[in-house]
Amino acid sequence: MATKEEHVRKPEWLKIKLNTNENYTGLKKMMREKNLHTVCEEARCPNIHECWAVRRTATFMILGEVCTRACRFCAVKTGLPTELDLEEPERVADSVQLMNLKHAVITVVARDDLKDGGASVLAETIRAIRRKNPFTTIEVLPSDMGGVEENLRIVMDARPDILNHNIETVRSLTPRVRARAKYERSLEFLRRAKEMQSDIPTKSSIMLGLGETKEEIIETMDDLRANNVDIMTLGQYLQPTKKHIKVQKYYHPNEFEELKEIALSKGFSHVEAGPLVRSSYHADEQVNAAAKNKAQESK
């Protein structure tokens, strides 16, 4: 572990291959023309070149680019949002159609300024994509929306294919790492989602390298499984700017592989684990794996 004075050097295996082919530049141009935001850009995702240039997938970020929470790990702008664009769902649906996406991921900045936490706009985005892209699977990644059950119900009634809500870190680090969010409230959010729509897979993610122990990681796996979470991703935390919380440890790919095996042994239907894995990394594969697992269980 690093002390406050030490700087942990980034290892070789975290080098990223950049690819700025026509898919990448075309997708970036379309996002600007449609006045859309992506978490790929706003959160400085290390996989943006792979996803945009090679896989041609993107994670849309709706309800603006300003988040009402200031989590110490996140590069998304924080402050008081001024916009509520009710035409955004249709623009997202049009973009999904233009990109011919098989799987669309829709995330939402925390909007604690809105009574429903943005649930209504998220639900309408799901419905708009369904109308224009009936064969596209949809994954949503909301905040806890204040922990209000009715807000979650609005989203679940729109029936996304996967409900993703990130617990982000272990219990002991949550107060230092996440703003306003609570470990138990995230677990409750995931449990309620499964209770509302038992056939919709749920998913959560943990960042590693913030100072957690292996025992705490395994405890978090157990907590997620106890609340019927189906899919889990584990990735390396990367400090986006000097203002954000520092990296305490870089996990070796072999350590991620070991944690993946442990998670699978706990009963998760699908696990992605690796230094550059993020919540929506290879999300198209995850929804397919969840569908196969569901089909096997029904036999």
Automatic annotation (TrEMBL):
Co-factor requirement: [4Fe-4S] cluster
CDD domains in the record: Radical_SAM (cd01335)
Binding, [4Fe-4S] cluster 2: 67, 71, 74
SUPFAM superfamilies to which the protein is assigned, alphabetical: Radical SAM enzymes
Cofactor: binding comment: Binds 2 [4Fe-4S] clusters per subunit. One cluster is coordinated with 3 cysteines and an exchangeable S-adenosyl-L-methionine.
One Pfam family, short name: Radical_SAM
One GO cellular component, as annotated: cytoplasm
SMART domains in the record: Elp3
Annotated EC: 2.8.1.8
Catalytic activity of the protein: [[Fe-S] cluster scaffold protein carrying a second [4Fe-4S](2+) cluster] + N(6)-octanoyl-L-lysyl-[protein] + 2 oxidized [2Fe-2S]-[ferredoxin] + 2 S-adenosyl-L-methionine + 4 H(+) = [[Fe-S] cluster scaffold protein] + N(6)-[(R)-dihydrolipoyl]-L-lysyl-[protein] + 4 Fe(3+) + 2 hydrogen sulfide + 2 5'-deoxyadenosine + 2 L-methionine + 2 reduced [2Fe-2S]-[ferredoxin]
GO BP of this protein: protein lipoylation
Database matches in InterPro entries: Aldolase_TIM (IPR013785), Elp3/MiaA/NifB-like_rSAM (IPR006638), LIAS_N (IPR031691), Lipoyl_synth (IPR003698), rSAM (IPR007197), rSAM_sf (IPR058240)
Keywords: 4Fe-4S, Cytoplasm, Iron, Iron-sulfur, Metal-binding, S-adenosyl-L-methionine, Transferase
An MF annotation (GO) of this entry: metal ion binding
UniProt-annotated location(s): Cytoplasm
Coiled coil: none
Record-listed [4Fe-4S] cluster 1 binding positions: 40, 45, 51, 280
Pathway given in the UniProt record: Protein modification; protein lipoylation via endogenous pathway; protein N(6)-(lipoyl)lysine from octanoyl-[acyl-carrier-protein]
Every Radical SAM core domain range: 53-269
Highest taxon listed in the record's lineage: Bacteria
NCBIfam families per record: lipA (TIGR00510), PRK05481.1 (NF004019), PRK12928.1 (NF009544)
HAMAP family in the record: Lipoyl_synth (MF_00206)
Entry's family note: Belongs to the radical SAM superfamily. Lipoyl synthase family.
PANTHER family named among the record's database cross-references: LIPOYL SYNTHASE, LIPOYL SYNTHASE, MITOCHONDRIAL
Protein name: Lipoyl synthase
